Amino acid sequence: MNAPILLYGFFSLKFGIFASNQALKEMTNFGFLTKKTEDEFDNIL
């Protein structure tokens, strides 16, 4: 009877972890990109 709820909880937890990992990766990539463009702007100037 509780199986569907447990399954749902498990999957939402797994997805939550996956989503936050993805978000973290996106943010670090964005950070690297902005840092890189800043360096390139410094080189141009």
Report on the architecture of this protein.
The chain is mostly helical. The protein has one helix at 3-44.
Protein topology:
Elements: H1 3-44
Q: Quick summary of this structure?
A:
The protein has 45 residues and is mainly alpha-helical. The protein is 93% helix and 0% strand.
Shape: rod-shaped
Low-confidence region ranges:
none
Helix percentage: over 70%
What is the N-to-C succession of helices and strands? H
Structural class label: mainly alpha
How confident is the prediction overall: mean pLDDT?
79
List the defining traits of the structure above.
45 residues
